[in-house]
């Protein structure tokens, strides 16, 4: 029997109920939670990122929730290093640790490792961000098609972060990003158990709509207003914020902006499911099946 400690990953599309399930499991297993939601890392972003509320944070110790400022640069490689540095100390106290979130790339970085690419110079990063700001995502797609025609066929073309990162690697190294990706899993000193949560599509989309309405009622527009001077920061280039920035710029009505948030969140949920369903090691449950999930975890 393999007695390595166990990292239980709880993932799935946005609004499916990951937070509630992870807290129930953590309490039953007497353990802690690591957030793998890249939007919840930032202290200043609260309503629009659906962070666990203070009561939930008091129920179970959470890590990687609200520990960064939006002014700080953070990426998946740093997250991988931070989690791997923290886990040994956590495993000394808890034979099982729970990771929860919907950021697939961040989860893969911890479970499998990522290729070590050099960081670009600040000048290059600012230059590419300037192109994106001035000419839009279409220009990033055009540039990546020139630098790496193989990668443009598989990358999420609607995700500017992925396009920017690939361009940074291509330009910094002088080689196509696709040629430098090894995709070989790295050795880990712990086991990984992956649990995916999902719901029938209509139910999931109804929950997304309800949650957006609840965010607006909780003051999301007021939260966004205070970030208008900081909207250029990468942390704020996210669903829920960018649509309201456009509204405050007079590009749409508030009603239209709210509908855009719901539409873009549904699109994001579909992309998440596409990402997670390619993993054949993922065991799928509905979020109300907490007892079955716990029983499944205890088998390991």
Number of helices: 13
Number of domains: 2
Which secondary-structure class do the elements indicate?
alpha/beta
Low-pLDDT segments, ≥5 res: none
**Average of pLDDT:** 93
Model description:
The protein has two domains: 6-114 and 184-298, 3-Layer(aba) Sandwich (Rossmann fold); 122-180, Histone, subunit A (Orthogonal Bundle). The chain is 50% helix and 9% strand. It has helices at 18-29, 54-59, 76-93, 104-111, 122-135, 137-147, 160-173, 177-180, 201-217, 220-225, 242-248, 254-277, 290-298; strands at 6-11, 33-35, 62-63, 96-100, 191-197, 283-285. Strands 3-2-4-1-5-6 form a six-stranded parallel sheet, sandwiched between helices. Helix 2 (54-59) links the parallel strand 2 (33-35) and strand 3. Helix 5 (122-135) packs across helix 7, helix 9 (201-217) packs across helix 12 and helix 11 runs antiparallel to helix 12 (254-277). The relative contact order is 0.17. The model has no long low-confidence stretch (mean pLDDT 93).
């Amino acid at each position: 029997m393999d007695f390595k400690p166990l990292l239980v990953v709880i993932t799935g599309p946005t609004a499916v109920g990951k937070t509630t399930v992870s807290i129930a499991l953590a309490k039953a297993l007497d353990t802690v939670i690591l957030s793998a939601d890249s939007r919840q890392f930032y202290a200043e972003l609260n309503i629009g990122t659906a962070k666990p509320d203070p009561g939930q944070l008091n129920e179970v110790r959470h890590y990687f929730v609200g520990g960064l400022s939006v002014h700080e640069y953070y990426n998946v490689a740093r997250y991988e290093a931070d989690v791997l540095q923290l886990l040994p100390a956590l495993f000394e106290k808890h034979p099982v640790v729970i990771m929860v979130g919907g950021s697939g790339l961040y989860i893969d970085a911890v479970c499998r490792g990522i290729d070590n690419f050099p960081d670009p110079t600040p000048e290059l990063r600012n230059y590419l961000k300037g192109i994106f700001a001035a000419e839009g995502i279409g220009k990033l797609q055009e540039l990546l098609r020139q630098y790496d025609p193989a990668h443009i066929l598989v990358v999420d073309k609607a995700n500017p972060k992925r396009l920017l990162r690939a361009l940074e690697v291509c330009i910094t190294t002088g080689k196509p990003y696709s040629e430098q990706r090894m995709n070989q899993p790295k050795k880990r000193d712990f086991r990984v158990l992956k649990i995916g949560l999902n719901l029938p599509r209509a139910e999931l989309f109804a929950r997304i709509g309800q949650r957006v309405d609840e965010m607006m009622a909780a003051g999301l527009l007021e939260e966004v207003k205070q970030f208008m001077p900081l909207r250029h920061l990468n942390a704020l280039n996210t669903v829920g914020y960018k649509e309201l920035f456009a509204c405050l710029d007079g590009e749409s009505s508030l009603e239209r902006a709210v509908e855009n948030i719901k539409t873009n969140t549904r699109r994001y949920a579909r992309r998440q499911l596409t990402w997670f369903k390619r993993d054949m090691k993922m065991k799928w449950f509905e979020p109300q099946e907490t007892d079955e999930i716990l029983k499944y975890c205890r088998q390991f």
